[in-house]
Amino acid sequence: MNRYTDAYEDLVLILSKEEVMLDEPMMNHTWFEIGGTADVLVIPDSVDRLIKVIHYVTENNIPTFLIGNGSNLLVKDGGIRGIVIKTEMINQIRVEGNTVVAECGSLLADISEAAYNASLTGFEFACGIPGTLGGAVFMNAGAYDGEMSFVLDSVRVITPDLRIITLSKNQLELGYRTSAVKINGYVVLDAVILLKHGSKEEIKAKIDDLTHRREDRQPLEFPSAGSTFKRPTGHYAGKLIQDAGLKGYQMGGAQVSEKHSGFVINRDHAEAKDVLNLINYIQTTVMDKFNVELCTEVLIVGEDK
Ligand SMILES: Cc1cc2nc3c(=O)[nH]c(=O)nc-3n(C[C@H](O)[C@H](O)[C@H](O)COP(=O)(O)OP(=O)(O)OC[C@H]3O[C@@H](n4cnc5c(N)ncnc54)[C@H](O)[C@@H]3O)c2cc1C
Q: 90-130, pLDDT tens digit by residue?
């Protein structure tokens, strides 16, 4: 029984019928291709409409979860109660001098391309991270030799008490897979990314190199949420998992990738419970063998079935 049908009706009036869905399977909105239904899923197509939705859910005290491209999420099999807001349609990007101003739902690959087209260097590291700007600020996403903290100039957010404020880089408290956005429950609206003028050929060469490295090492042919675990101090999660003999280990439809042990993949119609059982088994095994705690980088949300 969906308790949020009234909210659905209200949101259809605030937005439009195309932007609001009832009982929407989250497996259609996550890179893992896993997850039960959201009571209501909203996909606003502008920052103004996003702000209207946030006002509505806050004033009506409705539980809300925000997603970007769903590339760092494991949604449980019982789905998500309340409203899920997806930002993918809020994706305007413009270049101004040596800055790129991008809205929260812009894909990192699109920002990277815009920077390349304008001969701006510094954002190449993010070209293969399949997330949005908002998700990348939230997690301080990073890869190879770069991370968001190196390039962010400022970020405009809406706070839980509905103030719109601009945070400078120093106020963002960016650390390893964390930020003030994550800590304080802010919603990223847009951001200014500060880059440097560079050689177009060198930018292209770097993007090509990083793309090949990803294709060689990561199991991009299977659904996943990227690295399942954070890097434990002094170790690599993938190596610990491989050394524990778990490469290729499978539980239900979930498997430790044979290509990269740091990735749990959806090998064959996995449910969230398969992934969770496997994560638990990996954590216990690595703790028993090496006395190292593995903490998940993947965010686990929703309810059990
Ligand atoms: C194949 C693969 C490779 C990956 N490689 C990397 C990598 O190299 N480096 C890396 O760091 N990550 C990597 N990831 C993980 C993931 O892509 C990043 O964490 C990315 O930044 C998540 O962005 P998203 O838009 O998909 O966020 P989602 O997964 O949709 O959400 C993640 C979190 O961000 C929050 N969020 C989303 N948008 C906003 C917003 N506008 N305001 C506030 N909070 C928001 C959500 O509420 C949620 O808590 C990889 C994932 C995959 C599947």
A: 999 999 999 999 999 999 999 999 999 999 999 999 999 99
Residue 68, ligand 1, Cβ within 6 A: yes
Q: Which of ligand 1's atoms lies nearest the C-alpha of 143?
A: 8
238 close to ligand 1 (CB < 6 Angstrom): no
d(CA 49, CA 282): 42
Is the sign of the CA dihedral 253, 249, 285, 290 positive or negative? negative
Cβ of 179 below 6 Å from ligand 1: no
297 labelled catalytic: yes
What is the fold of 237-301? 3.90.78
What residues does 285 pair with on adjacent strands?
A: none
Q: What's the pTM?
A: 0.97
User: What does the domain layout of the chain look like in residue ranges?
Assistant: 5-86, 93-217, 237-301
CATH of region 5-86, choose from 3.40.630.30, 3.30.43.10, 2.30.110.10, 3.40.50.1000: 3.30.43.10
Q: Which atom of ligand 1 is nearest to the CA of 189?
A: 41
For the record, the structure tokens of 300 come out as 């686990």
State CA 70 to chain mean position distance: 5
Specify whether 231 is catalytic. Answer: no
CATH 3.10.129.10 fits domain 93-217: no
Mind listing the pLDDT tens digit for each residue in 234-273? 999 999 999 999 999 999 999 999 999 999 999 999 999 9
